[in-house]
Amino acid sequence: MEEHVKTLGILHAAHFSARLDTVRLRTGRATERIKVDHPEAAAVVPFLDSEHIIMVRQWRYAIERETLEIPAGKVDPGEDVQVCAGRELEEETGYHAGRLLQLFSYFPAIGYSNEVIRIYAASGLTRLEARLDEDEISKVEVLPVQRVYDLIFDGVIRDGKTVIGLSLFKALQARGGLPADFFA
To answer: Is the pTM of this model over 0.85?
Structure first.
């Protein structure tokens, strides 16, 4: 257990806050810790059919590059996480999900953030006439699932939620754990 000694500084932003604290370790030594309070998020592995998924390209400021990843976003205050997953899919890709299946929930940065991401798989997709979120998304791409796995193994796709979502979907599928009508 670590004991909070004092807060050295706090940063408040629109969607998160960060705090730098001095803590005392169980050995008695003092050190600093950063804690980011972040809202829950939802991510979606959207299957157009059993062989193709929809992915998005977007600029990620922290790593100064464009990434190829599954759609995702923050849960709005009072919003159900599954509703958020469907909303983010629609806003980022222009597709509505007929089915959403929760795959996994995890802490993406457990060393300094309390953020939780819930990953869903989506099927029964229908194209909407919605305008996409052009501030975030530069391109929507339909890719063969096997090509996405190749891009992961080649180190092109390195986004954690994408790698986890696709890996767990494949494991669930291999175990016979998908609903019989998932791709119907």
So the answer is: yes
